[in-house]
Write a structure and sequence with these properties.
Elements: H1 11-23, H2 26-33, H3 37-51, E1 56-59, E2 62-65, H4 67-91, E3 97-103, H5 105-112, H6 116-122, E4 126-132, E5 148-154, E6 162-174, H7 176-181, E7 195-199, H8 209-215, E8 225-229, H9 232-240, E9 245-249, H10 250-258, E10 263-264, E11 269-280, H11 286-311
Parallel strand pairs: 3-4, 3-5, 7-8, 7-9
Antiparallel strand pairs: 1-2, 5-11, 6-9, 6-10, 6-11
């Protein structure tokens, strides 16, 4: 089947579009691509003219993808990832390397491991070495031992090779059986008297029950029934098993809400100060790191588009 080359824009335009969509501003894209913001904006305008669609809304806070932009980003990310992987295979046709990942338990348990089969089928020559670190902060400098790390950090972190994965949105959840036995738990004025689930010795820079209360403008009180778990996975597992109310990040429990193993007691609250990132180090197998990061971003773009379609 012949390729209709007249419907394919320039590769540079696609690279500029992907970077702008991922980073949220032409300025950040220009820094990554080492060109001027004006040049990026001009390329995007030409791409929109070529496609005869508007790809971005230009907001004061930055760029926001239109519905057409969201759909196009999925295909562009897939295409660039395929091209990147093909180039790597040409350079290293028989090379099998290990990509060193430093990630948190939640990213590993709730997001990465359920999707590893897809990654292996797409990139059979990339082996993953996974190291768990829940307390890595993006403000710490240098990743000499790892190719890619998962970080929780201030939203305005300006560090090269950072890729924003998840904004910070938190909500309260419990199991259907817990809610049936404790219907009053929907009344936030009685929240602090309910069985609550928390993390023992959580890092100080993590969001907490206190910071969640502040963001929801709810007066914090010392809970009368607080069960402390070793980590967030334990908290979520305890909530599934009817032990109490959990404070959770939305991306941790999206599939559990969809399968109705958990019930949302509150809408997600935007915390604005922090976010979750991947960061690529300047050491190690950068081609494989780029393939992994683009695969993650592609998965998120596809999921976001599916969610938009379900809302439509």
């Amino acid at each position: 089947m012949p390729i209709h080359h007249k419907s394919i824009p320039s590769l540079s335009a696609l690279i500029f579009f992907e970077a702008s969509a991922r980073l949220g501003t032409f300025t950040k894209a220009s820094k990554e691509l080492h060109i001027s913001p004006t040049a990026v904006a001009k390329q995007i305008k030409q791409l929109e003219h070529f496609l005869d669609v508007t790809l971005f809304y230009r907001r004061k806070r930055g760029l926001e993808l239109t519905n057409e932009g969201e759909q196009y980003l999925v295909h562009v990310t897939q295409a660039l990832s395929i091209l990147s992987d093909a180039g790597h295979r040409m350079k290293h046709p028989s090379q099998s390397q290990a990509l060193n990942l430093e990630i948190g338990t939640c990213f590993s348990h709730f997001w990465l491991i359920p999707r590893l089969d897809d990654f292996r089928s797409r990139f059979p020559n990339i082996n993953l070495n996974i190291s768990i670190n829940n307390e890595r902060n993006m403000t710490q400098h240098g990743l000499p031992s790892y190719d890619v790390a998962f970080y929780y950090a201030p939203i305005d972190s300006e560090q090269k090779e950072n890729y924003l994965l998840f904004d910070e949105r938190m909500l309260l959840v419990c199991s259907p059986d817990f809610l049936a036995k404790n219907p009053e738990c929907r009344d936030l004025s009685k929240l602090w008297q309910q069985p609550l689930l928390g993390i023992k010795d959580a890092p100080s820079f993590w969001e907490s029950w206190q910071s969640w209360a502040q963001n929801t403008q709810l007066k914090y009180q010392s809970p009368t029934q607080m069960m402390l778990m070793e980590d967030q996975i334990g908290v979520i597992q305890a909530a599934i098993n009817d032990a109490g109310i959990a404070l959770a990040w939305d991306w941790h429990i999206a599939e559990l809400l969809e399968s109705e193993q958990l019930i949302a007691l509150t809408p997600p609250v935007e915390c604005y100060e922090n976010a979750f990132f991947l960061s690529r180090s300047q050491v190690g197998c950068s081609d494989d790191a780029e393939s992994f990061i683009h695969w993650v971003l592609e998965q998120l773009a596809v999921e976001k588009q599916l969610n938009l379609n379900n809302l439509a």
